[in-house]
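Predict the holo structure. Ligand: FE2/S2 (inorganic) cluster.
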Amino acid sequence: MADLPYTEKVIEYFKNPKNVGKIEDADGKAKEGSPACGDMVSVYIKVDEETKEITDIKFESYGCASNIATGSIITEMAKGKTIDEAKKITWNDAAEELGGLPKMKTHCSVLAVEGLQAAIADYEEKHGLVKEQKPTTKEIVEKRLRHVMNPMTGLDVVRTDLINDIKVKDGVISLKVDLVEDHQFANAIKEDIMEKLEHLWDIEEISIEFKDS
Ligand code: FES
C-alpha cells in the first residue's frame, strides 16, 4: 500500500464503503456525471417533512476509489443534518475529512458532492421549496443536460451534440436527440433527460424527438 497516493482513510472507505445502495422511496435523488472522466454517481435521500433533517442517505458509485471514498464520507457527514446544513458541505470539506486526496482526483470528490447537492435540489424542487423561481430558459435546460452522459463517448449529451434544437416556450421544452428511437441507449437517455427537467417549476411538458430511422 506504501506506493499508493492515498491516505489510509481513503483506502479504508474504499474497501468498506458506507451507505452504499439505493433508497427505493427516496424523497430526493440525483444521478450526476463527471465531465472530467465520464464516471457517475447516484445519491438518494430521505428527509423528515417537519424538521427537514436527512434521516437516511445512500449512494451508488460508478466511479473510482476516490469517488467511492468521498461518497462514503459525504453521506456520513450529511446524515442527521438539515438540508440547509448539508448544502454547505463542500468537496474541500470531504477531501479534508479523508485526510486529503491527490490533486488529479479532485474532480472525483467534486462529483460526489455534486450528487449530494443535486439530490437536495431535487427534494426542494419536488416540495416547492425553491426560493428563487427563475423562468426556465434554453441556457438553464442546457446547463442541466450537461449532467446527462452520452454513453457512447463518456462525455455529456450537450457537448457531444447528441441533443440539439432545444426550445423553451409557453411551459414546453422541446428538443431533438440525434439517435433513432429504438437505439439501445435511447430509453436510458430519455429517462435521464426527463429526470433532469421534469421538476422545473414552470414546465408542463417535455417533448423529445428522435431521429427518423
Ligand atoms: Fe472518475 Fe474518479 S476518475 S470519479
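The mean pLDDT is 92. The domain at 8-126 is CATH 3.90.1010.10 (Sufe protein. Chain: A).
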